[in-house]
Amino acid sequence: MEEVDLFVIGGGSAGMKTARTVAKMGYKVAVAEAKETGGECFWAGCIPTKALLRAASVWQMVREASEFGIHAGELHGDFSEAMAYKKRIMQKLAGDSPKDAGLSKLGALYFNEKASFESANEIRVGSQVIQAKKVLIATGTDPSIPTIPGLIEAGFITNREAVDLEYLPKQIAIIGGGPIGLEFGQIFHRFGAAVTIIESASHVLPREDSTVAMLAQESIIRQGISIKTATSVKSITRSGNCKSLILQTAMGEERLECDEILISTGRVPATKGLNVGAAGLDDDGKALKFDLMLQTPVPAIYAAGDVTGGYQFTHVASYMGGVAAMNMFGSNPRLADTRVLPRCTYIDPEVASVGITELEAKAANLPVRVQCAHYSDLDKPVLYNRTEGIVKLIVSAVDDQILGAHILGDSASSIISEVAVCMQNRLPVQAIANTMHAFPSFPEVVEAAALSKDIC
Ligand SMILES: Cc1cc2nc3c(=O)[nH]c(=O)nc-3n(C[C@H](O)[C@H](O)[C@H](O)COP(=O)(O)OP(=O)(O)OC[C@H]3O[C@@H](n4cnc5c(N)ncnc54)[C@H](O)[C@@H]3O)c2cc1C
Known about the structure:
Bound molecules: flavin-adenine dinucleotide
Number of domains: 3
Distance between the termini: 64 Å
Structural class: alpha/beta
Helix content: 25-40%
Shape: globular
CATH topology of the largest domain: FAD/NAD(P)-binding domain
Largest sheet: 7 strands, mixed
Radius of gyration: 24 Å
Strand content: 15-25%
């Protein structure tokens, strides 16, 4: 039986980071990837959606160009050409990288197969069983599909099909108003589809600060997307191409007709068929149990990335992959520290946050003050006609450290990094207030919030 030091199950952001790090340390590594290296982020997540969002925002900019005195003649935004742009971008980013993404060059074994546990130290890939001193589970997640009567029969898509759609639906119902639902909603709407987003919580982006989430919701509605909050789907029927959803709203039942349904109601850990029970782990389909060292209750097995069920972002998966590598094979074990974790939703205007919300601070009885600044008060947003937005800082009243930041507005995903650096280094809010910021620039809104006594 072949023996390795580490067997990595899953070739996404987490698994690849661990595999590369440990192989470069000189250990013998094997990786199994059931589909393609790169995982959800490259094939059906971050990369394709951001390419499509960029295409959609260029199209929007062109439509608004007359505001700046630009009259471009007859305009036409073509969804299938935007899809072709996305495809070209993916080819460009993949380059001529081999299927194993260079793992064999690092001396690692690569299996393009689904892996499963035979025991805590034995992994089955196809007809082979590999003996491993340590195992990393980095299998990511699958879309969570709600149990709605008639859904399966009516047919639906998830992000995995949506990134490759060959046609633009005329009317699309998006079930789930989190980041994935909103991003796809804006893409489809900007290319001409009628979009309705159905969210069971009282507002979209329910994990975000409520001020920012509400402002984002109002902005999306102003753009022409219909949002139904505090609403659930009772049942679905289909007649020809028409899908009929019966919605339960606070006001009673409503019918919504569409030609496509996108499900974006969260994710479930991809542990089906992994046979984790044979390794001594709970096989209940829930997120894997693990400690701050990313070690599961079975000492030889670690977990990293989305499968752990925390905040699901590529930068977190990759960070966890690095921590797991160090804790399994490095000389300086470390805790996975996700205190400063930027979270972005790439709609227009963007939403970005880091740290805790005002409500979380209140629930934890932390003495805080909330400092705000509005995009409309600064020159750069006015110059650019991008005045919609807010920066909200949650600042400790004890030592002035920033505990959280919540931004809606142009370039939010970029300017959040300034606050993240400050928080990571436990600098007080004055570190931002006392730093000269270029004029005119979007980060001046963060400076204004740091100087502000405004309560939003
Ligand atoms: C629509 C969408 C948009 C997103 N946009 C962003 C974004 O803009 N920014 C961001 O930071 N994050 C984004 N994310 C989240 C990001 O994609 C994930 O956080 C990231 O992919 C997690 O990496 P991972 O390695 O944990 O899991 P994955 O990327 O899911 O990789 C897991 C891999 O394991 C493989 N696998 C599963 N089971 C087995 C098995 N038994 N044997 C072998 N292989 C197996 C799978 O095929 C997969 O390739 C987005 C997600 C979605 C769905």
